[in-house]
Amino acid sequence: MPQPKPTQKQINKENLLSQGVTLLTHKGYHGTGLKEILDAVQIPKGSFYNYFGSKENFAAEVTQHYIAPFIKQLDAHLQNPDGDALGAIKRYFGELINELEQTDFKGGCLLGNLMGEIGDTSEVVRASLQQAVNQYRDLLQAGLAKAQQEGTVRTDKSAGEMADLLVNTWQGVLLRMKIDKSSVPLKQCCTNLLDEYFRN
Amino acid sequence: MPQPKPTQKQINKENLLSQGVTLLTHKGYHGTGLKEILDAVQIPKGSFYNYFGSKENFAAEVTQHYIAPFIKQLDAHLQNPDGDALGAIKRYFGELINELEQTDFKGGCLLGNLMGEIGDTSEVVRASLQQAVNQYRDLLQAGLAKAQQEGTVRTDKSAGEMADLLVNTWQGVLLRMKIDKSSVPLKQCCTNLLDEYFRN
DNA sequence: TTTTTCGAGACGACTGGTCATTTTTTATTA
DNA sequence: TAATAAAAAATGACCAGTCGTCTCGAAAAA
What pLDDT was estimated at residue B52? Predict the structure, then answer.
């Protein structure tokens, strides 16, 4: 039995990570105090250090907790038997744009925000971010490769390179979105890459 | 006489802004304490608040102080009479890549870092960031428009849209650079956009 | 010309509060 | 009871920002 009944410790950790995702996304690493997270989930400070050891380690775990649902969501679209891979990717990013519009373009991507803020000062967080981004990129690469086989995406450029470009550009447009308070950059990114540059 | 001899106040502000660029770029907004900046330039705290009023206003001025040299550098390339506009842009980004390689991919772009960290929490900084990015984008747009006239860049897509895509993608690859500690993303960005997608 | 007055700018010790982390105490479980 | 986990309390460092004092040059008065 893998997890028939989660222990209180597991529940607490889950709550902390979940709240951590929200707060770190919106207020950043140094902008979020431990007390703020602890108060939100009603867990004493001592327990936090028992669970995670340090704020840095916590942030590293938060990044993994953050990316998992996105991987799941994208994978669900790609696994969908009816519909081509390129269409699945486009629909996935369309959903992301919808969600961002509904949250008034606030927050953006936790990964991108942490990369900019502490990507080059905290080694543990850096490594965790790299792993999360690579996971995401690899799934995108697989989707693009499938689209290549289906003939919708050009084959003179590797799926890996296109996946990288897409991931990186997406991070860039998320930043631009935040200061322009607009989804136009997001849509332009999808159009330019998915509808034009990658097209066969 | 515009500025025959700068006052001590002007010198102090200049030093603070210059040090602010360095520290905010590498340690972020919340990661940099005022004391750290003040100690570095040997200026008392009272003077700081006399000059800037608040840390937030200071950061807003720092962003302007940060972007100016980049505008100048890119403009110098574009003004160069011998050589086409697309070549000038490519050479400019080549220089940026060189500089980033020499600084071990640390820091990245202050604008991008601040967009992620406080782009949606500080209104004054957000506005300043937007202005700085737009300045940069407009210059890039002018360069791309010139390249269109010269026949090296496609004309079926507006120079403005391409400038936006380039600026945004560049921000994204700078983040990726930080966690991969590699200039490969930077080079791929230039190749994909300037050598391929934008090409006529 | 010399003296006095005055005010703007410069200044740094100080404030209340928050920071992440550690140490100590209490509770739980084996 | 011994070992382990959880919670509370304590710790010192640091935070952005303030405020009363001081300095110094220019204007006013003598």
Answer: 92
Give chain B's mean pLDDT. Answer: 93
Q: Predicted ipTM?
A: 0.90
Tokens of B41: 């330039």
Give me the domain span that covers residue A162: 55-197
| Residue B146 forms part of a structural domain | yes
Q: Residue B130 above 80 pLDDT?
A: yes
Chain A residues with CB-CB distance to B185 below 8 A: 164, 168
| Partners of A199 in the β-ladder | A153
Find out whether B114 and B59 touch, Cβ atoms under 8 Å.
Answer: yes
Q: How much is the pLDDT for B46?
A: 87
The domain total for chain B is: 1
Chain D positions under 7 Å from a protein CB? 5-10, 14-20
Residue for token digits 């772009």?
B109
Mean pLDDT of B139-167: 98
Report which of residues B47 and A141 the model is more confident about: A141
Q: Is B186 inside a domain boundary? A: yes
Residue–nucleotide distance: B7 CA to C3 C1' (Å):
29
Whether residues A185 and B192 touch (CB distance < 8 A) is answered with: no
CA at B49, C1' at D21: how many angstroms apart? Answer: 17
Is residue A62 a part of any domain in this protein? yes
Band the pLDDT of A9: cuts 50, 70, 90. Answer: low
**Is the residue at B138 inside a domain?**
yes
What mean pLDDT do residues A59-70 have? Answer: 96
CB B145 within 8 A of CB B166: no
**CA A169 to C1' D12, whole Å:** 44
Distance CA A111, CA A115 (A): 6
- The CATH number of the domain holding residue B128 is 1.10.357.10
- SS3 state at B135: helix
| Residues whose CB is below 7 A of strand D | A 7-9, 12, 43-47, 49-51; B 32-36, 45-46, 49, 54-56
Residue A5 has pLDDT above 80, yes or no: no
The Cα A89–Cα A143 span in angstroms is: 7
